[in-house]
Amino acid sequence: MILVNTDYISGKNLEMLGLVKGSTIQSKNIGKDITQSFKTLVGGELKAYNEMMNEARALATKRMVEEAESLGADAVVNIRYASSAVMQGAAEVIAYGTAVKFTN
Question: What is stated as this protein's family in its record (predicted)?
Answer without folding.
Answer: Belongs to the UPF0145 family.
